[in-house]
């Protein structure tokens, strides 16, 4: 190689160095950016610096072969620049979707073919047909160009033209600093291209001098100005098409004639079900008649709500309308004003959405899906209304004075609150119906009671979502405090119909009486283990069961399948809490009334029954003062004893009444012996025949019961207290009998009442206390005659 420093070596070397410095500056700035464009522009400037540097070497080289070799490298560098520049312009102008192998694969491939042709030119002479060194101050060769050279020029200038047009359109569509930035980049792109055209036209400063390389001085200056003055890497214009395509909300543009002239993929997906769908040119009345109606009656922009038919069904939208002059998207985007000749309507001066002449106002429509919000607002309003009704129901239940009234009001309130068809309240003891709004149709009452019993045991609400099919599904709604554990389904042995088949659809399944059970946060299986055939209900489609503490289970029926939602069940839960409170209130008020009656009776006895023995004692005391005798004092003593016994019984009634405490299984034989030891037996005898077994009782009160029975036998037995008391048990009946004179038949039904006694000195409260203690345990006392003719008391239902 032979080198010679010419008059152009230094200038082109400085240009190359300037471009390299600009590339370094851009690279440092690009480190703060993550966009593709930052890396593309660094590659572009660095490639340009390389091209100018190679040209600097060429103008300083005097050997023909070396000059041609460097020229080939220069062509390779130059061929790489237009694709990089076009890719950057795509990014800069918002067409990033075009930066794909499908677009740039052919472009880069064609460039590589050209570079390969240049590298092998000696073999085919398609690029340079003949090469020679002219007599010129510039050490560059000249050549006769072949067809591949023409293809290369067309390749380079076609890519530069595409990039230039995009930049020009962007510059015209932007304002302020972005317009200045786009203009400087336009100069960045045009300077080498125009210089190349001038060079090809024969306007070179010196023979062999490449004006395109010299024009990179303008490229360097434009790039520097754009970088440091117009914030090249920080600001990027966005095209209207790009804005429309990336908008998250469905957006449509309608012209003054009511035709859709543009829309984004979101709108296409909304109305056609396909993001790539297209309905440009169609009437807005065809796509969304509701929007057409709004635009035809509304002359200004603003927000409104409407329901639209979409590809996914009817949805609620908030529509933001922005009016535009002329035909809309491509016209002046200023506000519409009647003073300027605009009608302020989409349809122009006509009467319909499509009657205008095109001079009316178009509109940009932004659709915001508010379906969930509208549903939430509707649910909130419904919830508030339900809460208001629940408060009123709670007041009505609290005003009830009888349990029956509470039950009746409950079933009607439950039915009305969730708009069901039927409701009933089942007793938690025997699962009989306490109250009902009507008949349950063909639904099996026994099966319903089975469901209710299991719901009560679980303590959580359950919904049978479909009563109309064999093997109805039972869904548990809500949750409990404990984590659920689903038991494994037992394997079903092969039956007459063959081995177990794979899982079938719900409508064909035939499991147990309640069908398969799906649990959501509950630890109860409400599927019946046995019972009647699977549910086939003809009247009702759904059943919701909710436990009511202290009462039983509330069951609500509806004719529709899947009629109950979780909000309905929650409403029933809240109602059940009101029912529990009202029931407890009624029970408390009943107890208070009984207590009041007992106290009134106590006052009556004190004022009346004590008056008789008191009068006797007072009378004989006056006689004893006049004539003290043994008989007078004996009578006074007996009257005082009677008063003492009466007071003991009255205090016992006042303290306990019919109430009992905690119960526990106890040995009745031990209880009977303890009761015998509490009374003055005298010459009386206790006889226990057989084992009395055990019972779940309040031990202290039952001891009191037997003690009163024993006292009654001893007090009313044979003369001198010589009486035999016998206690036996047969099944759930315990009998206490004696061999005394017995109780007359005409008073047997009355001796268990308060104040009734068959002896002159009796208080009439002992047997009343026996009856109340037995009733508190769920027992019944019957009075009869013993085998020996004495009294016999049978206590029934002892378990």
Write up what this structure looks like.
- The protein has a seven-stranded mixed β-sheet, sandwiched between helices. It has a five-stranded antiparallel β-sheet with strand order 4-3-7-6-5, sandwiched between helices.
- The relative contact order is 0.04.
- A hairpin with a 5-residue loop joins strand 20 (780-785) and strand 21 (791-796).
- The chain is 48% helix and 15% strand.
- The protein is α+β, with helices and mostly antiparallel strands.
- Helix 2 (36-59) runs antiparallel to helix 3 and helix 13 packs parallel to helix 16 (566-608).
Summarize the structure.
By secondary structure, the protein is of the alpha+beta class.
E-strand count: 21
List low-pLDDT spans: 326-359, 470-536
The whole-angstrom Rg is: 53 Å
Portion in helices: 40-55%
Distance between the termini: 123 Å
Give the class from helix and strand content and strand pairing.
Answer: alpha+beta
Largest sheet: 7 strands, mixed
């Amino acid at each position: 190689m032979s080198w010679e420093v010419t008059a152009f070596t230094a200038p082109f070397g400085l240009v190359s160095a300037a471009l390299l410095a600009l590339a370094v500056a851009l690279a440092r700035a690009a480190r703060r950016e993550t966009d593709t464009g930052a890396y593309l522009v660094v590659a572009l400037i660095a490639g340009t610096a390389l091209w100018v540097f190679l040209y600097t070497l060429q103008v300083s080289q005097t050997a023909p072969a070396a000059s041609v070799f460097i020229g080939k490298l220069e062509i390779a560098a130059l061929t790489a620049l237009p694709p990089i520049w076009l890719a950057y312009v795509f990014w800069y102008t918002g067409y990033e979707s075009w930066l794909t192998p499908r677009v740039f694969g052919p472009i880069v491939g064609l460039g590589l073919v050209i570079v390969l042709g240049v590298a092998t030119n000696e073999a085919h002479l398609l690029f340079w047909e003949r090469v020679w060194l002219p007599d010129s101050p510039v050490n560059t060769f000249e050549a006769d160009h072949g067809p591949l050279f023409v293809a290369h020029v067309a390749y380079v200038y076609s890519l530069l033209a595409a990039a230039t047009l995009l930049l020009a359109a962007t510059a015209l569509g932007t304002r302020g600093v972005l317009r200045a930035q786009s203009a400087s980049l336009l100069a960045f792109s045009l300077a080498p291209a125009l210089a190349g055209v001038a060079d090809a036209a024969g306007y070179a400063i010196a023979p062999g001098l490449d004006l395109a390389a010299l024009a990179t001085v303008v490229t360097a200056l434009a790039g520097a100005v754009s970088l440091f003055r117009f914030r090249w890497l920080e600001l990027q214009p966005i095209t209207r098409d790009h804005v429309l395509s990336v908008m998250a909300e469905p957006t449509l543009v309608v012209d003054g004639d009511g035709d859709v002239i543009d829309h984004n993929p979101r709108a296409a997906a909304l109305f056609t079900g396909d993001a790539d769908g297209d309905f440009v040119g169609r009437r807005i009345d065809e796509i969304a008649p509701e929007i057409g109606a709004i635009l035809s009656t509304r002359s200004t922009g603003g927000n409104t709500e409407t329901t639209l038919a979409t590809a996914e069904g009817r949805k609620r939208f908030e529509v933001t309308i922005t009016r535009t002059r002329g035909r809309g998207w491509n016209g002046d985007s200023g506000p519409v004003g009647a003073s300027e000749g605009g009608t302020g309507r989409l349809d122009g001066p006509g009467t319909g959405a499509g009657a205008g002449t095109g001079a009316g106002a178009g509109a940009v429509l932004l659709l915001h899906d508010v379906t969930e919000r509208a549903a939430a607002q509707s649910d909130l309003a419904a919830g508030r209304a339900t809460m208001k009704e629940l408060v009123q129901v709670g007041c009505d239940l609290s005003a009830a004075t009888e349990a029956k009234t509470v039950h009746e009001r409950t079933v009607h309130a439950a039915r009305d609150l969730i708009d069901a068809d039927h409701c009933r309240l089942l007793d938690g003891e025997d699962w009989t119906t306490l109250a009902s709004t009507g008949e349950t149709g063909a639904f099996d009452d026994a099966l319903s009671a089975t469901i209710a019993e299991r719901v009560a045991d679980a303590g959580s609400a359950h919904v049978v979502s479909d009563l109309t099919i064999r093997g109805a599904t039972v869904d548990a709604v809500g949750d409990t405090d404990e984590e659920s554990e689903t038991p494994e389904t037992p394997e079903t042995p092969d039956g007459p119909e063959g081995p177990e088949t794979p899982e079938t659809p719900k409508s064909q399944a035939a499991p147990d009486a309640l069908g398969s059970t799906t649990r959501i946060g509950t630890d109860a299986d409400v599927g019946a283990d046995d019972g009647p055939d699977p549910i086939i209900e003809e009247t009702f489609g759904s059943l919701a069961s909710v436990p009511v503490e202290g009462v039983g289970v509330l069951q609500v029926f509806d004719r529709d399948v899947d009629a109950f939602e979780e909000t309905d069940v929650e409403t029933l839960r809240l109602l059940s809490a009101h029912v529990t409170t009202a029931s407890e209130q009624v029970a408390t008020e009943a107890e208070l009334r009984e207590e009041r009656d007992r106290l009134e009776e106590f006052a009556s006895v004190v004022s009346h029954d004590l008056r008789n023995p008191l009068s006797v004692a007072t009378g004989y005391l006056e006689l004893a003062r006049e004539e003290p005798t043994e008989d007078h004092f004996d009578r006074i003593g007996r009257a005082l004893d009677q008063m003492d016994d009466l007071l003991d019984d009255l205090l016992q009634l006042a303290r306990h009444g019919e109430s009992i405490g905690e119960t526990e299984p106890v040995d009745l034989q031990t209880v009977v012996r303890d009761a015998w030891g509490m009374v003055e037996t005298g010459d009386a005898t206790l006889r226990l025949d057989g084992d009395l077994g055990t019972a779940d009782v309040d031990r202290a009160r039952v001891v009191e019961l037997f003690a009163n029975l024993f006292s009654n036998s001893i007090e009313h037995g044979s003369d001198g207290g010589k009486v035999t008391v016998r206690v036996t048990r047969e099944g759930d009946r315990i009998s206490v009998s004696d061999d005394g004179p017995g109780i007359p038949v005409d008073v047997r039904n009355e001796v268990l009442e308060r104040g009734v006694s068959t002896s002159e000195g009796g208080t009439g409260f002992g047997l009343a206390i026996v009856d109340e203690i037995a009733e508190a345990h769920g027992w019944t006392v019957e009075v009869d005659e013993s085998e020996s003719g004495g009294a016999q008391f049978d206590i029934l239902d002892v378990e």
